[in-house]
Amino acid sequence: MNELPSSPIATVGTIALYLSFVLAAATAATGIVGNARKNPRLVAASVYGLYGFFAMIAITSALLVYAFLTHDFTIKYVAATSDTSMSTSYKITAFWGALDGSLLFWVFVLAAFSTIAVAVNARRHRDMIGFVVGTIMVVQVFFITLLIFNKDPFTTFLTDPPTNGQGLNPLLQNYWMVIHPPSLYIGFVAATIPFAFAIAALASGRLDDLWLGSVRTWSLICFFFLSFGLILGGRWAYEELGWGGYWAWDPVENAGLIPWFTMTAFLHTAVIQEQRGMMKAWNLVLVILTFFFTIFGTFMTRSGVVQSVHAFGKDDQIALEFIVFMLFFLIVGLGLVIYRLPRLRNNGAFESFASRETAFLVNNWILLACAVFVLFVTMLPTITEHLFGERKTIGAAFFNLWMTPLGLVLLFLAGAAPLLAWRKTTGERLIAQFLWPTAAAVVTMGLLGALVPASRALTPVLDDALRLPVPLFTFGLCGFVFGSIIQEYIRGLGARMKQTGSDPFTSLVGLVLIKRRKYGGYVIHLAIAVLFIGFAGKTWDTMVDRTIAKPAVELAAAKQPVDASRFTVRGYTFQYEALEQVADDNKIATYAHVTLSRGKEKLELMHPARNSYRRGTEPTSEVAIHERLSEDVYVVLTGFDTDTKTANFRIYVNPLVNWVWIGFVFLAIGTFICLIPQGLVDLVSGRPKSALGRAADVAGLLLIVGALLAPMVAAARADDEPPLRVAQAGPPAEHADAEVRARGHADDSGWSHRHRPDSATAEKLMKQLVCMCGGCQRETLFDCKCGFAATERKKVLDQLAGFDLTKPGGPEAAEKAVRDAFIREYGGEDVLATPRGKSTWLVPYLAIVGGLVVLGVITASFVKRGRAAAAAAAAAPGVTAADEKYADRLDDELRDNDA
Amino acid sequence: MREPARPEAPPPRPLPPARAAGASTLIAPLVAAALLPPGWMFIAHAHRWHLTPSVIVLCLAWTAVVGAGYALVRAGNAFLDEVPEDWFTAGGTHAELEREKKSLVRAIKEIEFDRDTGKLSAADAAALLTAYRARAIEVIKALDLDAAGLSPRDRVLAELKARAQIDRQAGKAKAKAAKAAKAGKATKDNGKPAPEAAAATVTAAPAAAATEQPAVEAPAPEAPAAAPTVETPAAVIDEARATDAAGSSEEVAS
Q: Residue A23 and residue A27: Cα distance in Å, rounded?
């Protein structure tokens, strides 16, 4: 008789999970009751309970990782996401490779962070730490409930466990994907800490700025890791997915972006609260919203409410549990804010529109508008499905129409806000501050407009009918930001040198260290400008498809001219040299060797490849990228025939794309500057006077920065030459149409070059219609490389053949007719990349314009009140002679304070 | 009809007496530290001393087991350990005043920096600095009162007295400035200079301060001798107004 499969690891792991649940619930109750009843012993016990919970979850996580490392395939999760051929690093990656493990990973990371946060802050906040612990533990109880009752990662097979696992999705077996999910999770989890402190401050009534100082570091950590995770995801998509881009406004991508917007807004208004004692209630709301959006993003990707290849699948039970949880915390959080509103009055007031406070307020409005817009449009298909029974698809084009102008306003503010003073900037000062940055913007636009015609490319903004030279504006604003930040550094340096009498280098180091939040923030603003340079390049990128019948090797062997194996795109010459196959236990990799040249200069031998997996998963592309600061040349092998050696290539030329990655490096540097601890500043402030001592300081600083950046550098892509072995098997030949359609997203046989648009109308239509194969990321017919998309493109061309596109009105009529035909065929507008309904456009108009009006009214009333208060303050007497003793003491404090 | 008397609830059982931090808080971490190496060695031995990633993960798991036990023991002990009496008044008024002082000092430095970097004109900066400095001085005074160990009631009385005096000085300064402005206007109409007018305007505030009542710098706990017994804040204000009215009538007479 066969024995039932058993796994001691699974048994112990499950017990540890249940114990963690009990401990979390007990700790939550102890902390909340202890703080509410002002019982210090209960509060102290809850703190240790939190530490104990972290240890229990560490045990659970370690056991799951051990199961992966020892190939315990009696556990279903291990069997589903790993196999014996995977390397150790990917086995560990599999821990968070699917839903069950990702939830446990979330709990583990939150437990680790909360342990550090509570340990560091328990003494300073002991009058409210019980509420902090309680809030965190309630969140943990929710996630562990999901684990225990819905997605237990230790579930075992009841009979016949497999001898090997299914392995991790090949797309995830990439070093970027090793670090992308953890960094995003860290970003999400880090938003829970400020949330817990905010709830604790509200619950305990400790509404001074103390909680703000404690959460500042965590907010920066959240901001950094969300940024890091988003950039890593973009880099992974760029390298792995083979569609030449890095951002597609996919729902899962948006799930990480929305809390990024609100956290960035909070980081700015937190400064207002510290400097001016204003926006207290708003900051609390922002922290609550950021936490809500992190949970909402998790809900989106794990419940199936949105369709995405990133999503974990559909689960109505989990969806309901998430909804209840989110509603609970939203009601509790906002309810507490409303309850405490009388004690959250502003200490200061707005006095002028030309002030840094107003700039931050506008910045908040833009960021919140971005968050709400992205959220609404991401959820629109789900909303329309429930309301009207029809899913309205929203493509990247719709997002870009709106996010582009919002982004440009944000870019302007990144340069303008640093130029404004707190409270007010008078007219004369305003001109003096804006003069040089504006000149930099004008010169940039003038030079680029004259020398780089591509920068004048017209891009639709807000509506297809409104087209503006967005790249030129973008570069101009980048020039403005650079001018502004450089001016700030120069003037700050001058002031510091005058104040301390030091040399420029010492003054610069002192300036950055003493005012690290300001000057680190300026570096982040520079990073945003650099990112926008990268974004702007997308406007004039190029994509072409080419098919080469014979490689140069074969042509040379047949004594034929090798010119037939060459083609040119945007001044680059590509010569298809050879086709080779390499097989291993896991896959068959087919490489095309392509020589890239520019003029007479040989640039690189590139090796785009396609992998077919023995386990039957979707084939994947391994793109070849020639990276340059000005542009990338991106080659994808979209199809091949090993018998005839025919190869299909898709070539992208992506201008300025590397500036996106460089921008993130600046962002990281700026964030690290902001995170420099006070202790380190105190340590280096007693600086040696000798040159050797100063050199040691510089070296130490470089070591610290280098050590922090080293993991990113180490993860940089290495160009591996493929082993030159030839395998035996070949891919299947091209299929007939019906077979292709039946196979759905089958892009292994070179369909991307077929039925390309032959007119502007055809291209426009193909960019409006979505590939309905069900296997791609709902790419447009223009972009999708599969056979299904090819047959759909043929349909478009066949239908357009019946129209005269040369006569006036012909293209519009043809466009409408073809679009309507597709809508009829697919029974709705789901086939469209962007919705046609006016109501869809109405919402962003109303929200953004309406918000602007509301903001203007609110600011005007703030400014009116602020001016009255300022006038009253000015009328009050200043320091009297009787206070001179105190004035002297104040002067002593100011002298000792090097801020 | 009277209800039958309810039996009295038994008194709550007292908590065990708190114990001071001592040897007991050292034993737990020592035991935990002592348990770690044997566990690691056992794990390594069971895997024949091949330190593979799975062995390392098991060692980490053992560390977590010991850590969990230690934390739970400390959680239990927390019910018995001594806790400071001021646990729930972690900050207190003094800490809040210190924070406000630091915030004001930072704001003053920021204004000076903005002036030096050209964002603020000298006049704007001066106006802002005056307001911030005045507030900072108020806070420093409040810190002194707090440090002097005054009862909250005495602190309020002393503060009210100081504020009332400042209000009187302000009122006198305004009156003098108005008088000087009138004199200046009259002179302009008549074409004759009024030597006192300009001087009075500029020096009104400091002069008023110089000739006024004794300074408030010494936060004396005892009530002022010359005034009637001041027992309540309202009485302090009334006293101040009475002194003010007396001062004004003297000016009018002169």
A: 6
Give residue A534's pLDDT: 95
Between residues 2 and 61 of chain B, which touch chain A (CB distance below 8 Å)?
15, 52-54, 57-58, 60-61
Q: Which of A634 and A691 is assigned the larger pLDDT? A: A634
Q: Show Cβ contacts of residue B66 under 8 Å, excluding neighbours closer than 6 positions.
A: B32, B35, B36, B39
Q: Is A274 on the interface with B (CB under 8 A)?
A: yes
- Cβ of A58 within 8 Å of Cβ of B88? The answer is no
Ramachandran category for residue B40: left, alpha or beta (phi over 0 → left; psi -120 to 50 → alpha):
alpha
Q: What is the pLDDT of residue B234?
A: 58
Across-strand partners of A624?
A: A635
First to last CA, chain A: 78
d(CA A59, CA A67): 12
Which pLDDT score, from 0 to 100, does residue A727 have?
A: 30
How far, in Å, CA of B99 to CA of B64, rounded? 39
Long-range contacts of A294-297 (CB under 8 A, 24+ apart): A294/A187, A294/A188, A294/A189, A294/A191, A294/A192, A294/A259, A295/A322, A295/A325, A295/A326, A295/A329, A296/A255, A296/A258, A296/A326, A296/A375, A297/A188, A297/A252, A297/A254, A297/A255, A297/A256, A297/A258, A297/A259
* Residues of chain A contacting B19 with CB distance shorter than 8 Å: none
In the three-class reduction of DSSP (H, G, I as helix; E, B as strand; rest coil), residue A194 is classed as helix
Q: What is the token pair recorded at A539? A: 């406007």
Q: Which has the closest alpha carbon to A831: A798, A787, A789? A: A789
In this prediction, residue A49 has a pLDDT band, given cuts at 50, 70 and 90, of: very high
What is the rounded average pLDDT for all residues in chain A? 84
Burial label for A62, CB within 10 Å (0-12, 13-18, 19+), is buried
> Which residues touch A789 (CB under 8 Å, ≥6 apart)?
A751, A752, A771, A773, A776, A779, A781
Are A881 and B215 an interchain contact pair (Cβ–Cβ within 8 Å)? yes
The three-class DSSP label of residue B220 is coil
In this prediction, residue A415 carries a pLDDT of 96
What is the secondary structure of A256-312 as a DSSP string?
A: HHHHHHHHHHHHHHHHHHHHHS--HHHHHHHHHHHHHHHHHHHHHHHHSSS--TTS-
Tell me if A660 sits within 8 A of A534, measured CB to CB. yes
d(CA A82, CA A87): 10
CA atoms of A2 and A20, how far apart (whole Å)? 34
Q: Which residue of B has its CA nearest to A881?
A: B209
CB hemisphere CA count around A418 (13 angstroms): 29
Tokens of B75: 């959680």
Give the residue-averaged pLDDT of A668-694: 74
Q: For residue A596, what are the β-bridge partners? A: A574, A604
Give the alpha-carbon dihedral of A36, A42, A48, A50, to 10 degrees.
-40
The 8 Å CB, 24+ separation contacts for A382-388 are: A382/A305, A382/A306
For residues A579-598, average pLDDT: 90
Query: Which tokens in the block code for residue A694?
Result: 């100063």
**Ranges assigned E (strand) in chain B:** none
User: How far, in Å, are A148, A580, B234 from residue A154 at the CA level?
Assistant: 9, 43, 72
pLDDT tens-digit readout, A121-136: 888 888 899 999 999 9
Q: Which residues, other chains included, contact A267 with Cβ-Cβ below 8 Å and sequence gap of 6+? A: A219, A220, A223
Q: Kindly report, residue by residue over B199-237, the tens digit of the pLDDT.
A: 333 333 333 333 333 333 333 444 444 444 444 555 655
Kindly report the backbone phi and psi dihedral angles of residue B42, in degrees, each rounded to the nearest multiple of 5, phi listed first: -60, -45
The one-letter amino acid at A420: L
Distances (CA, A) of A440 to A416, A460, A481: 13, 26, 9
- Judging contacts by C-beta atoms under 8 Å, the chain A residues touching residue B113 are 492, 495, 515
